[in-house]
């Protein structure tokens, strides 16, 4: 069954994470995504290892596991954009595409004749999505940057981590490159919105996605409190500034999470734990009271939870209707009964014969479910196929381009 975007073709000029995340989302939804890579080197993240993907004999390949996380369901073509012939090939491909996605530094593609204005001239209905660090305008527009920089500059690290007066206190980035992932999702949403607009008007447009914009917007919940109160949000570790108890607790052999979002859940928690006296304590009756008096309450609950194992408390809390859970390492995540039932592990065969495991797309569509058509490709794996089927070039012409090093044809050995 064709995916919902099966009539859409995307020319993917993105590398690393934010851009490829967006184009993989489109590819998972059925779009034909043509990933343009550099000859010889390819996408930067192919080299971000170890760990490396393995072939059918268990030997390491030259492609990283990192690359495989954001490039399935795509076809790869390798074109040297520094050559006039390569630039012309990209323009010809853009004529045949609905969307172009790129994450070059501001102005870089203009030097190659591949800016929005350049490609709009050959395809007026084109949707052109640029993902950059700081956006297309402003005093920082031409500066480069990675996710880590924006977690700092955009405020996230100022609220992430333990407070300064606690052991290990200080600003901490998230382990996942959250700015990149969110920027990729914003790009996906914007592209889908632009496609809908074009369906009604026939007009293409340019999309400007900024990592800095993205991470500042991500903080809206905390920022709203700052705008309202003038108080700068601080780090709470695993606690919550507006809810108590809503945090992790140490147990006899690990940790667990308890999350009371209202007074009723707190009463159920106390009943389940045999701590009815806490409900009667005037310091803890309402959420606002518990937030003010969190220290003695958390101290009492902490002293209780550390007396038994995580498994014990999870069994006790299962009857409480209070949201709770364990803190799992990824091996335990994929043993979780719900994760197993939802089949979040996806296996595909790699072009070199080995098996690749990736994570299932979280979007569930009843009529047009996500399909896993292609494993993450080899660099230039589909060069010949794309040039012959999309641009209708002869085998002789493709070989001429390869000999001139304008394009690369993959070696699967």
From TrEMBL:
Keywords of this entry: Transferase
GO molecular function terms listed in the Swiss-Prot or TrEMBL record: CoA-transferase activity
SUPFAM superfamilies: CoA-transferase family III (CaiB/BaiF) (SSF89796)
Pfam family, one: CoA_transf_3
Entry-linked InterPro entries: CoA-transferase_III_domain (IPR050483), CoA-Trfase_fam_III (IPR003673), CoA-Trfase_III_dom3_sf (IPR044855), CoA-Trfase_III_dom_1_sf (IPR023606)
Protein name: CoA-transferase
